[in-house]
Design goal:
The protein folds into 2 domains: about 80 residues, Sandwich (ATP Synthase, domain 1); about 50 residues. The chain contains 2 helices and 10 strands, in the order E-E-E-E-E-E-E-E-E-E-H-H. The relative contact order is 0.18. By secondary structure, the protein is of the alpha+beta class. It is about 30% helix and about 40% strand. The longest helix has 27 residues. A hairpin with a 2-residue loop joins strand 3 and strand 4. Strands 2-1-9-8-5 form a 5-stranded mixed sheet, with no helix packed on it. The chain has a 5-stranded antiparallel sheet with strand order 4-3-6-7-10.
Length: about 140
């Protein structure tokens, strides 16, 4: 069975390096499913969950917050602004961040940066989705 070489790095460190038979990435225009032999592609990515399925079927879930993915027929390289293992996310903290960003957007008074508040809201929502997805996967076992 053909496998892909997968590397996920953030601005701080390498998060994942290994082989996979399938990789799912949150592309800027929608979810990307990558199998060995995929057509070369370079695209931006949005905050969300990366799912890496190893050759033995084991799955790894990572949370990423933007960046780029380069896909080659035998390799996937994700250069993320922020990346971490989904199981290290703090659900309470992500929920507080979501609430704070939503409150900022609702406040029509004061000098706020709406683009920044929207980005913070999107990132918090993506973290919560990653946490829920990981929990669902663990419960299915």
């Amino acid at each position: 069975m053909a496998l892909l070489k997968v590397d996920v790095v953030s601005t701080e460190r390498a998060i994942f390096s290994g082989e996979a038979r399938f990789v799912e990435v949150p592309g800027s225009a929608g979810e990307l499913g990558v199998l060995p032999g995929h057509t070369p592609l370079l695209t931006s990515i949005r905050p969300g969950t990366v799912r890496i399925e190893a050759g033995d079927g084991a799955e790894t879930f990572l949370y990423i917050a933007g960046g780029f993915v380069e896909i080659q027929p035998d390799r996937v390289t994700i250069l993320a602004d922020t990346a971490m293992r989904a199981d290290s996310l703090d659900e309470a903290r992500a929920e507080r961040a979501r609430e704070e960003a939503a409150a900022l957007l609702e406040d029509q008074h004061g000098d706020i940066d709406y683009a920044k508040a929207q980005a913070e809201l999107a990132e918090a929502v993506a973290q919560l989705q990653a946490i829920r997805r990981l929990k669902k996967h663990k419960d299915a076992r």
